[in-house]
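Problem: given the chain below (247 residues), write out its structure.
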Amino acid sequence: MNYALLLDIEGTITDNRGFDGKHTEVLQGKLRGLESSGFNIIFCSGRDLKYIRNLKRVWGLNLSRPIIAENGCVVFDGIAELPTFDRSKYPHSAIHKRLAETKLFEMAELDGAKRFVITIYPKGLSMGVEYTQQQVQDIYDLVRSELAEFELSITYSSASVDIMPMGVDKLFGLKVLIDKKNTITPPNCMYIGDSKNDLEIGKFIHGIGGLFCVPGNALTELKLAADHVAKKQFDGGVLEIIERFDI
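Solution.
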């Protein structure tokens, strides 16, 4: 059988800002061991592909395994990078122009590394400034109001607001990978994530016989949908889940 452990990054294997947690070294070793025993370790993140590949390199993980990046807007199938949507129908420039006309950037900043998703963080986050979940919510509310004229998917995580083409999300990216890679068998998958953009992919995997688990810091709506909620937060919660299911 082909088993896969699908992992979100921020708020799951790291803290909310993408920094190493208290158990990073132990988790790195555990994931390397799982890969050695035949597991697919698949990162599913809002981060860009270059960032995720570099993270895998630092953690000593197999660079030829699939990746879902930019919340499903681009995937890596083990060989090539594949955008998952028709870019000619996504008004990327018009969205940027509209946002620049608002007061958004008095309270927020853009992630300049991404090519498809428009990701917005609380101002100062990239410099290590502390923020609250209410700040993320305020950014989300403003963006949804200002971009109401566009057909878009707008969601948020523990640290950011993400603007994407309608219908594209992490689940969409997973389905593209399933079509491309017969080594991914959803009933034999476990998904671990903490934020709103993890909900649909987690519910899908649960619905077809896999497991959807969340760390203790996950949003309430994810906890209600999950097969298992860890007592510990972030990377400690991931280790707890791995041990709980004897992976």
